[in-house]
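Lecture 7 notes: from sequence to structure.
We start with the chain below.
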Amino acid sequence: MKKKMFLMISVLMVALSAVGQAKKPTIMILPSDNWCVQRYFMTTFDNQGTDVKVPNYQQAFQEDTELGQVISKVGSILTSMGYSLKDAEQEIKSLYVKQAEDNVTLSKGSGAQLVESLLDILKRRIKSDVVIQIWWKLNREGAGRSASFTLEAFDAYTNKRIATSTGTTKVSKDDVPVLLENAVKEHIKPFDKQMSEWFADQKKNGREITLTVRCWDSWDKDLETEFGGEELTDCIQSWLRKNCVGGAFNLSDGTESFAQFEQVHISLQDEKGRAMDARSFATNLRRYLQKEPYNITSKVIIRGLGEAVLILGEK
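Predicted structure tokens for the same chain:
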């Protein structure tokens, strides 16, 4: 009887602990841009006549023997602290597998291939609340070696830096992954505090996105068209006041065919408990404008997780 009672109390304590533990953001750990530059894991592409260099994460994971181990060590520390970790290496592999499948997909009739635009490629962003970038450098010491490191956390929706931690490990003969694991453990509390404060603010005030409303040139109306005595821009602002957290948004620019809304604060989840991002928020606005008295057909285009463009007039 005493044993059963002890087990029941233990289960109850575990359950209460789980309920009481605050939900933490979903994270993904990647090497920093500077780390990729130093090791020549960069790809250059032509952006309208200008060469742009971006990290080649797939090459980095395939060719660097330390990267996977370092991310695994750091990830295990953060996971033990309650963060939900997405495996960057596996996600990137999945992206390339899907691309390969698309490249060999043919239609039954004509044998035509799938058309993929640059926009389609850019939309393939790995979704997480936070992207953590790690940089490290090995220092040779007389009695062994040390490693300097920097951890930086960025809001995946706005690219704003939300937490940072930097330091140098003690001199040791350990391998680099173990060196960094010990160093991160020593410096992780202030980093975790910054992350927790940011996420608490997100839950209270909503996550920040950018929403742009534009018009197709084929549309016979514009944002100055009146509905019930109010211009369409004003109608959209009324909808935003009702649907933004605390009614918070900023109309930073606008004309008869263009409206730029910044610092639009949206809930982390919708009424069904699903994660809310810029696309789902803009889709709600699209559906609202489809109804009476507007009857406006429109199209949503996304630019990453935190920016959406709603184009009025047709799809």
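Points to note: The CA atoms of residues 223 and 233 lie 5 Å apart. The longest strand covers residues 130-141.
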